[in-house]
Amino acid sequence: MPKRILQGTVVSDTNEKTVVVSVERRFTHPILKKTVRRSKKYHAHDEANAAKVGDLVQIEECAPISKNKRWTVVTSA
């Protein structure tokens, strides 16, 4: 099964080798038929500490690295 890749914005880079990425998804509400925005934060491993707050990054699924980290930064766009 292929690994999922998500795109989002870095909202925190204070931790060592970790960034918090906010990923937004849009969908049509089943009853209201209106576009709804939902966001979720993911902790991602950033080995080089390259990503900074506000950067657009892609994250990829990986094996668990710590209690919260299950994603790794692929590219910093």
Give a verbal description of the structure.
The structure is a single chain. This protein has one domain: Nucleic acid-binding proteins (OB fold (Dihydrolipoamide Acetyltransferase, E2P)). The protein is an all-beta fold. It has strands at 5-12, 18-28, 35-45, 56-61, 71-76. The model has no long low-confidence stretch (mean pLDDT 95). A hairpin with a 6-residue loop joins strand 2 (18-28) and strand 3 (35-45). The chain contains no helices and five strands. It has a five-stranded mixed β-barrel with strand order 1-2-3-5-4. The radius of gyration is 14 Å and the shape is globular. Belongs to the universal ribosomal protein uS17 family. One of its GO terms (molecular function) is rRNA binding. Part of the 30S ribosomal subunit. It comes from Pelagibacterium luteolum. This is Small ribosomal subunit protein uS17.
Structural class by SSE content: mainly beta
Helical proportion?
under 10%
Which assembly state applies to the chains in this document?
Answer: single chain
Q: At the fourth CATH level, what is the homologous superfamily?
A: Nucleic acid-binding proteins
Q: How do the helices and strands follow one another from N- to C-terminus?
A: EEEEE
Give the overall silhouette: globular
How would you state the average pLDDT, rounded? Answer: 95
Tally of DSSP helical segments: 0
Q: Indicate how many domains the architecture comprises.
A: 1
CATH fold assignment:
OB fold (Dihydrolipoamide Acetyltransferase, E2P)
CATH class: Mainly Beta
Strand content: over 45%
Give the low-confidence spans: none
